[in-house]
Write a structure and sequence with these properties.
Layout (H helix, E strand, L loop, with lengths): L1 E3 L11 H14 L3 E4 L16 H8 L3 H4 L2 E6 L13 E6 L3 H13 L5 H11 L9 H27 L4 E2 L8 E2 L2 E2 L3 H9 L4 H13 L4 E2 L12 E4 L7 H42 L12 E7 L4 E8 L1 H9 L1
Parallel strand pairs: 1-2, 2-3
Antiparallel strand pairs: 3-4, 5-7, 6-9, 8-9, 10-11
Helix pairs in contact: 1-2, 6-9, 7-8, 7-9, 9-10
This protein binds pyridoxal-5'-phosphate.
Subunit structure: Homodimer.
Keywords: Aminotransferase, Membrane, Pyridoxal phosphate, Transferase, Transmembrane, Transmembrane helix
Family: Belongs to the class-I pyridoxal-phosphate-dependent aminotransferase family. Alanine aminotransferase subfamily.
């Protein structure tokens, strides 16, 4: 079983009770737990501080602490270092037989080593400046400053998303991501279908085209059917954040209104034409139903009225025609 805590893409932090439950489950099913804890420094609330799976496992005592096999991961590319260019990381294995550890050690030793600067970063990460060291004050000030700024950015982003039409977003408790749910109206689903795109991919592409904001559609991570998300990071510079969120809001609110407007317009046109058709039909005149090529309706006759059996419409074309 794999857990990412704090989480990517959702930015959640697991509580101690969550972790105990997961470890008990792994024990009962004899599963190895891979604990990806690379965002352990990135915490933006005080209610659920980071607790490592290893600590919880050890606190649970025997038989769990002696038997559950756990691999814990960490890297230099997150935290306040954010050194994505430096490829350095480690994993620690708990409760694995020495022979397995030896084999893994052998495989790791014959692979290419990280470059020297990445190894230096790794050393600094596991052994940061201590009180009394020459750089201790500066290190503490800078790392605290970066984390406080990320906390503010997490709040600006969550509040920004929650102020948008049809968008709901949980607070980014940890990691570096915001994962708002985008509630797409029927017009947008229809437009995405016409474009041959998954709805949240369609939304993210339109967002990119309109604003230059690049996001990851939730469908890339797997999500409940009919539910749509996007993932974005809270990493843009703090001073640029309000402008970015304004730009997102402007795009989103227009997108939601426009796609709804298309469907409402289509339905109104349909009602008007259907009424006309019935009136004409009563007069016994031959009539063609034609909406300027916008819609195809399949109609069936009964004695008194006309029933619409099927509607095919192209919201993009409708929108274009309305604009023109
Ligand atoms: C959950 C998670 N684990 C691991 C990594 C990779 O870390 P690294 O930069 O050391 O390859 C990432 C990178 O984005 C991540 O999101």
């Amino acid at each position: 079983m794999v857990i990412i805590n704090p989480g990517n893409p959702t930015g959640q932090c697991l509580s101690e009770a969550n972790l105990r439950e997961i470890l008990r489950f792994c024990y009962s099913k004899k599963l190895v737990l891979l604990g990806d804890e690379v965002y352990q420094q990135n915490i933006y609330q005080d209610e659920r501080p980071f607790i490592s799976s290893k600590k919880v496992l050890m606190d649970m005592g025997s038989p769990f602490s002696k038997e559950v096999q756990l691999v814990s991961f960490h890297t230099v590319s997150k935290g306040y270092w954010g050194e994505c260019g430096q490829r350095g990381g480690y994993f620690e294995m708990t409760n694995f037989p020495p022979r397995v550890v030896e084999e893994i050690y052998k495989v790791a030793s014959i692979a290419l080593s990280p470059n020297v600067s990445a190894q230096i970063f790794m050393g600094l990460m596991v052994s940061p400046p201590k009180p009394g060291d020459i750089s201790y004050d500066q290190f503490t000030r800078e790392s605290k400053g970066i984390l406080e700024s990320l906390r503010r950015r997490a709040k600006i982003m969550t509040d920004g998303f929650n102020s948008c039409k049809n968008v709901v977003c949980n607070f980014t408790e940890g990691a570096m991501y915001s994962f708002p749910q985008i509630q797409l109206p029927p017009g947008a689903l229809q437009a995405a279908k016409q474009a041959g795109k998954v709805p949240d991919v369609f939304y993210c592409l339109k967002l990119l085209e309109a604003t230059g904001i690049s996001t990851v559609p939730g469908s890339g991570f797997g999500q409940r059917e009919g539910v749509f998300h996007l993932r974005t990071t809270i990493l843009p510079a703090e001073e640029e954040m309000p402008e970015i969120m304004d730009s997102f809001k402007k795009f989103n609110d227009e997108f939601m209104t426009r796609t709804n407007f298309i469907i409402i317009t289509a339905v109104l046109l349909l009602i008007i034409y259907k009424n006309n058709w019935e009136r004409e039909k009563k007069r016994g005149e031959k009539h063609f139903l034609f909406l300027g090529g916008l819609m195809d309706l399949r109609l069936s006759d009964c004695h008194e009225c006309v029933q619409v059996e099927e509607i095919k419409c192209d919201p993009i074309q409708i929108e274009r025609t309305i604009r023109n």
